[in-house]
Amino acid sequence: MAFAGYTSRPNGFVFREPVLHPHIIFRRVEFAMKAIAVLPGKPNSVHLRDIPVPKLLDQPQPHVCRIPDGRAVLVRTLQIGVDATDREINEALYGNAPPGGDHLVIGHESFGQVLEVGSKVTELKPGDFVSCTVRRPGGSLFDNIGRNDITSEETYYERGINLCHGYLTESFVDDAEFMVKVPVKLKHLGVLSEPASVCAKAIDQAYLAQQRLQVWNPKRAFVMGAGQIGLLATMMLKLRGLDVYTVATRPGPHRKQEIAEAYGATYVSTRQTSLQELTKKVGKPDLIFEATGNAEVCFRSMEVLAHNGALIWTSITGGKHEVTLDAAKINIEWVLGNKLLVSSVNGNRRHFEMGIAALSLGELTYPGVTERILTNPVDGLDNYREMMRLLVEDKDALKVFVNVGT
Q1: In which band, very low, low, confident or very high, does the pLDDT at 8 lie, cut at 50, 70 and 90?
Q2: Same-domain check for residues 84 and 111
Q3: DSSP E strands: which ranges in 219-359?
Q4: Of 248, 208, 250, 219, whose CA–CA distance to 231 is shortest?
């Protein structure tokens, strides 16, 4: 006997075509799935392993927060972006396994399609495309009001980074509260939702903090770094009408320069023009967005910021890196110049929505440009070694991402 949409076989029914239902997409039942994981604390331990297939009633982070009854969403993974964070976790610079386990499933930049929703989920339905936030709430006041991205607790919980399993799996379950819908016409950029949220939050935080001045209308911005974060920040600052200089090491021509200039920015190589020379030529920037991953650049940027300006740090620099600076000069210039340093990490649901909105506006304003950031697809979880090789060895790999499902 067979039912519509299925083929009868001796070992059961095999799914043929997706069948939409208000709460579920029917699929073949499996008991194990693939995941890419590391053994935290052990360098170069990235590996493929089998883990249980999640079910709608599962609690993926019971040690942190529980999904309220009826609010779970089951997602089929489509693409997962990977970056320096995943590389540094594999290098054992940071990251911890969930309590009671020895491994951490990595991957924090998610994009997938909803398979099934709980009975109390009204904002999502099967077939929707989604991205998911990364940090989960602890017990601080900020966590309790939905601002877990600025938790005041020393211990933080982030999927794929620290104490919570990530998204480099075939499917996952989480609370609808942490999922953000990606428009169908933006699905080709869906895997950039998390990086876009980082940029959107950082810029928003700087503008909010600068309300201390009553009037702040920045005209010139330096974006330090031309990786995915630097280029997305370039795009967002151009959308705000700023004159943007994207500053990186390598001279052009190359893809990063082409993307920055396609956004309307000016690309500057520090091998050809130093930061001090650029400042003398065009003037001090009102805003600096630092995204190099280099601790020295973080501090050198302090030397060129304009009066009443804002410097944003988004880099997370693992390891040890000593820098010699004229601290007295920086101190007097920053105090007398009313300068501001804003550090920004992670994003909550609102920041994901802002990032996705910026991707949409960017696609309308600069058609086809942002997609050029997606340089290095890796097909399938089985190719985890190639994924990590690209992150470690290929300096031209602007954006590495894994195609998990179709």
Answers
A1: very low
A2: yes
A3: 220-224, 243-248, 266-269, 287-290, 310-313, 340-343
A4: 248
Question: The domain containing residue 311 runs over which residues?
Answer: 197-343
pLDDT tier at 17, thresholds 50, 70, 90: very low
Contact status, residue 148 vs residue 142, Cβ threshold 8 Å: yes
Is residue 368 a contact partner of residue 225, using CB atoms and an 8 Å limit?
no
The neighbouring-strand residues paired with 162 are 158
Specify whether 297 is located in the same domain as 166. no
- In this structure, the dihedral spanned by the alpha carbons of residues 57, 197, 208 and 295, taken in order and rounded to 10 degrees, is 120
Q: Enumerate residues 6+ apart whose C-beta is below 8 A from 393.
A: none
CA atoms of 371 and 244, how far apart (whole Å): 20
Residue 77 and residue 224 share a domain = no
pLDDT of residue 18: 42
**Dihedral sign for Cα atoms in the order 327, 333, 334, 336:** positive
Q: Record the tokens describing residue 342, joined without a space.
A: 């804003």
> Do 285 and 235 share a domain, yes or no?
yes
Pairing of strands 32-38, 47-52: antiparallel
6 within some domain: no
**Residue-level pLDDT at 85:** 93
> Looking at the predicted structure, is the pLDDT value of residue 195 above 50?
yes
77 and 61 Cβ atoms separated by less than 8 Å: no
Report pLDDT for 22.
52
**Total structural domains within the chain:** 2
Q: What is the mean pLDDT of residues 150-162?
A: 94
CB-based contact 136:148 (threshold 8 Å): yes
Q: C-alpha distances in angstroms, 23 versus 28, 69, 170?
A: 16, 15, 20
Domain of 155: which CATH number?
A: 3.90.180.10
Structure-model confidence comparison of residues 26 and 295, the more confident one: 295
Q: Is 338 left (phi over 0), alpha (psi -120 to 50) or beta?
A: left
Please report which confidence band the pLDDT of residue 3 belongs to, taking 50, 70 and 90 as the band edges. Answer: very low
Do 175 and 210 fall within a single domain? no
Whether pLDDT at 215 is above 60: yes
Name the amino acid, one letter, at 168: L
190 within a domain of the structure (yes/no): no
Q: How confident is the model over 335-381, as pLDDT tens digits?
A: 999 999 999 988 999 999 999 999 999 999 999 999 999 999 999 99
